[in-house]
Amino acid sequence: MQPAYAAIREWLQTDRANAPTDRLGSWTLPNGEAYYNERLFAMTTLPVTADEVHATGLAEVARLRAAMEALRDSVGFNGSLQEFFVSMRADQRFYFADTDEGREAYLQLARDYLAAVTAKLPDYFGLLPKAGLDVKRVELFREQPGGAQHYYPGTPDGSRNGIFYAHLSDMQAMPRYTLEAIAYHEGLPGHHMQISIAQEQAVQYFLDNSPTPEATVRSEVERYIITPGQATAYKTGMMKIQQLRAQAEAALGDKFDIRGFHDTVLGGGALPLAVLEARVQRWIDKRLAGA
């Protein structure tokens, strides 16, 4: 296959000169705005406009910034929030050594986080995956500095484990302080359970509002540009599920059961959010009726 890939690469390098330099992202192409809105609907399954998503995003950034500023103050850091982020990115206490031992320590910490949450899953979920979950370094042939950690599903019958992959070619792009949340997102109770915008304007915005290393930020922003709406779906879905939980807790009071709620959300597989909302409402109605 190598000659074919070499030919494709040569064509891409030659054709690159024909690419416009003033267009970044699919929305700058002909009918790009319509395509962007279609992708938002396809990814979120809700009739939201780009302006509505943007307004929600700004509100969430403001909420999270307030929480991070409170954390900065609580640890006694004197400086702006951006200076706090710079300090976190530079402080070597938050990084493992760029050695084989350091990489294994990173993977082991991820396993420790996942083992701890696995022990708690039966308290919150009735439906649990049959397949186990392995934590591995991305294979060298496809590893890239700052590449997004990701999940590869196991088999439905549990005969092959799911895999939480981490890019470890640059340990300075893999701080400790992001690992726990990523392990939960990609592993448990995240993707493992679920499955078993101009580029520089965007990069700077990400860096200004997060201590995530720049290599990781650039990888993420490239994903946002190429597949519009895909990352938006995560946040939109999270907020809808939180809304449905609050709705269920208010309606059911003492009859609210966290395991039953989680099983209702996950038990139907991947659903449009309007269908998920109806499913949760039916569960609420049954609980109120004593079923």
Q: How many domain regions?
A: 2
Estimate what percentage of residues fall within beta strands. Answer: under 5%
The main sheet orders its strands as: 1-3-2
| Broad structural category | mainly alpha
Q: Which percent range fits the helix content?
A: 55-70%
What is the H/E string?
A: HHHHHEEEHHHHHHH
Compute the CA-based radius of gyration. Answer: 22 Å
Task: Round the mean pLDDT to the nearest integer and report it.
Answer: 89
Largest beta-sheet characterization: 3 strands, mixed
Task: Enumerate how many helices there are, as a single number.
Answer: 12
Tally of extended strands? 3
Distance between the termini: 59 Å
List key phrases describing it.
single chain; 291 residues; mainly alpha; 3-stranded mixed β-sheet; 12 helices; 60% helix; 4% strand
Explain what you see.
There is one protein chain. Helices cover 60% and strands 4% of the residues. It folds into 2 domains: 80-228, no CATH class; 234-288. It is globular. A 3-stranded mixed sheet has the order 1-3-2, with helices on one face. With 291 residues, the chain is mainly alpha-helical. Helix 5 (100-124) packs across helix 6 (176-186). The protein has helices at 2-15, 32-44, 50-74, 81-90, 100-124, 176-186, 191-195, 199-208, 214-226, 230-252, 258-267, 273-288, and strands at 133-137, 150-152, 162-166. The longest helix has 25 residues, at 50-74.
